[in-house]
Design brief:
Oligomer: single chain
Distance between the termini: 19 Å
Radius of gyration: 21 Å
CATH topology of the largest domain: Jelly Rolls
Largest sheet: 11 strands, mixed
CATH class of the largest domain: Mainly Beta
Strand content: 35-45%
Helix content: under 10%
Number of helices: 2
CATH superfamily of the largest domain: Protein of unknown function DUF2961
Length: about 325
Amino acid sequence: MVQEIWHLDTRRTRSISAENPTGEPGAGGRAIAGTGAFAAAGLGRGWKVSPSIDLGPGETVTLADISGPGVIRHLWLTTDRSILRDFTLQMYWDGAPDPAIAVPLGDFFCNGWDQLALVNSQQIVVAPAGGLNSYWPMPFHSHALVTLHNGADRHVPVYYQITYVEEDIPDLSGYLHATWRCSDPLGAPAVHPILETGGGPGRYAGTYLAVQPRADGWWGEGELKFYLDDDAEYPTICGTGTEDYFGGAWNFDLEGAYRPYSTPYLGMVQVIPPHRIYEPHQRFGMYRWHIPDPICFEDSLRVTVQALGWREDGHYLPLEQAHIASTALWYHALP
């Protein structure tokens, strides 16, 4: 829990960027070589000599290697916004061999498709013209490692800043996890698995969903279902439709058009192309953050979404050819 801004204590703020790769006190802006060296010629040290890094095709770079305890409070990054899904963001907590977060960069920032969408939410902000901001708090006890992999076929510049606070972490704190799953095509049954995890306790914190229905008409009749702990065939939490889960209603259709929206905890920020409706190859991106309404589980959690359309004869239509990609975020006792 973030304390009041006026509360003075012993916490210390540190920040890692290409200008201060270690985050050490007094170590920022000291580079004598870097991607800005030519532009800074004649100005000397301290004048934006190293504002970014160059990331080659197939390369993985360590953005941050931090000793704890602490909490990452803000991550800002920008790069080639046309290929955001070609990058993979990974985060490891407390020496775990496998990443707790392993997600395409675009999907982590609610931009799963190849056209930039601006996002104005509590946890994720995407600002003009491609500034990617995360405000998900990420606590760790002893160590945090953040990497970025370039899966594209060209060199790209990467500008970034990771701000964290050195502070003690309560024993009952959870680690942030995120996983990405893609079904393309979905197949039968038309149910996409968003998350299946055990070894709780934990709290489910958010969903980003990228959908291409590949069928005419309305595509969002499917329910999101949360199977908690001992649930077997039937879930404890079951919604009434995809647009309902993301806070909308009635097909997102307002006077014959989809209306994108972005609010603190939920939104539909991508409609591609924007001025058409009920077409099979349109693409959609939606998010919901369970901050005021976390989904708590003691041991295990399974989350699914149905891909279900609507036929003109009044019957449901399973969308077996749909493209669905999901990013699930949750806090977990295990790193």
